[in-house]
Amino acid sequence: YNIHQIDECCWMKGAWPVRAHAVGGRHVRGSSVDQNFDSYSVEYTFADGTKLWFNGRHINNCHNEFASYAHGTKGSAIVSTSAHTPGKVRLFSGQNITRQSMLWAFPQPEPNPYQTEWDDLMDAIRNDKPYNEVERGAIASMVTSMGRLAAHSGQVVEYDEMLNHDHEFAPNVDQCTLDGPAPLLADASGVYPVPMPGEKGLREY
Fold first, then answer.
1. What is the pLDDT of residue 202?
2. Is residue 25 part of a domain?
């Protein structure tokens, strides 16, 4: 759920958050039988006290913005806009992001990031250089899930708790077969269990 915004902000910070607390809800899911929340708001905290606030919703006919911003003591920045590309990265002298306060802008046109990642991989293969982003991808996924678990459980979730959590999203998935039962079953009404914050501790359902 919006992993890319969270990942790019942690990348810019050069660190992963140590905890998260969050809220979320099913405002307009109606009779949908799925388990999803349609909105999340997560506060991530880094070891030095820096905060990362994430807000996201999947609700039709609402204001739509796919972007990341940074604010510091000496100014602000656009981390990315337009769903990452073109990012239109810019620095500003104050907290108001306006043309008048802009200090710097990434030169246009920007390189295509989806081509650049392939260029990096192929260069590593051709020149026998190490290139492996599996660990970063796994941690980014875990940190995103940490925010989700904080919203679904209603608890503050620590990074180390996520690393050592015994919750299984798909219990006994290693034993699944094509003709066997699903890891998670609907109830008699055909509805799957949904997260109920405050009721199940650090478990989603």
1. 85
2. yes
Please report, to the nearest 10 degrees, the dihedral formed by the alpha carbons of residues 41, 58, 76, 90 taken in order: 160
Which of 54, 82, 77, 89 is closest to 66 using CA atoms? Answer: 82
CA-CA distance, 203 to 187, in Å (whole number)? Answer: 19
Amino acid at residue number 181: P
Would residue 194 count as lying in a domain?
no
What token pair was written down for 71?
A: 């604010």
At residue 102, what is the residue type?
Answer: M
pTM: 0.89
Residue 118 in this model has a pLDDT that exceeds 70: yes
Tell me what percent of the residues of the chain surpass a pLDDT of 70: 99
User: Is the CB of residue 73 less than 8 Å from the CB of residue 59?
Assistant: no
- Write the CATH number for 171: 3.30.360.10
- Specify the range with the lowest mean pLDDT, choosing from 44-48, 55-59, 128-132, 192-196: 192-196
First to last CA, the chain: 18
